[in-house]
Amino acid sequence: MRVQEIQAALREADLDGWLFYDHHLRDPLAYRVLGFTPPRTPSRRWYYLVPAQGEPRKLVHSIESGMIDALPGMKLTYAGWQTLTDGLRELLGDCRKVAMQYSPQCAILTISMVDAGTVEQVRALGVDVVTSADLLQQFEARWSEQQYAGHLEAGRRVDAIRRSAFKTIRAGMSEYALQQWIRQAFEREGLVTDHGPIVAVNSNASDPHYEPSAEKTAIINPGDVVLIDLWAKLAHPGSVYYDVTWTGYYGATPPDRVQNVFNIVTEARRAGSEVAKPGLQGFQIDDAVRGVIQAAGFGDRFFHRTGHSIGEDVHGAGANMDNLETHDTRALIPGTCFSVEPGIYLPEFGIRSEVNVYVTATGAQVTGEEQAQLVRVG
User: Fold this and answer.
1) Which of 44, 290, 18 has the alpha carbon at shortest distance from 135?
2) CB 78 within 8 A of CB 62
3) Does residue 158 surpass a pLDDT of 80?
4) What CATH fold (topology level) applies to the domain 3-140?
5) What pTM did the predictor assign?
């Protein structure tokens, strides 16, 4: 566990400590940051404080006293609710400001793991609770060299599958059949995913989170716009995702309206990836991308954030490229990765174009293939 590294970050942020808390495996971020796996699912609350100075401290229930023994530090125990309050007071000591996996107004869903009651419990002891969002960027969102290499390898495999998927399309094929073909290709290539992929034609492509099923699927035919959004990672512990979206047209020459929308979307995508650099805030990337689409008159047809952090979960714990759903002021830091995925969603069809952008010490770079032209299907 990186106690000294965490403590240095706490001092730099002028925080007295980072308070971790869990029961029933509700906070996977805590386990990843602390670097341990519990011996079983905890049925009682545990608390772990990494102070800015001194030895870490832990508070556990008496019937699960060994739950976090893998972590260093002095151990306190509680049983009843009165002793829990007393134990938490002793655990916090002279701390007056601590970070927790909490997001004001639940603005950042991916880090909002601590319930409101627990935040109230800590604040009732005279301790201010602030968000751990910036700390999580450092200790959860940054990739190791091995993870970055794994991302690139996953990208090579996913891009190859995506190319083959568009070539596999035949008139009369269903969205669901193509989705299942991609899932089987993932398995053959040693890739895993949590759900998806998205295969959507025409108006279905205007639903950004549409997924076909055996019961709900459209047939792909000449003249259709076809969108494929696919994300996967290597089937190894600690692997990180690769997540891209490409759009095609079934036919030799797409209609002018389809081509025009595609051109605007790809211009917006390039605006986001080209402006990215360390220190820029997430909302600023969103502004750069959204500005292109708004200038073209389609601002009301782009109704989701520009991009999300990417990590072991496809939606990671780092900065999101967002000034729509939230105002994300977290700065881009080296070693993190995010998506840039603008879309324009019209009643008759939708187009989205997505790349992954990795932040380096001096800039940022797209990690895989970039779509420049509509894929010609058939």
Assistant:
1) 18
2) yes
3) yes
4) Creatine Amidinohydrolase; Chain A, domain 1 (3.40.350)
5) 0.92
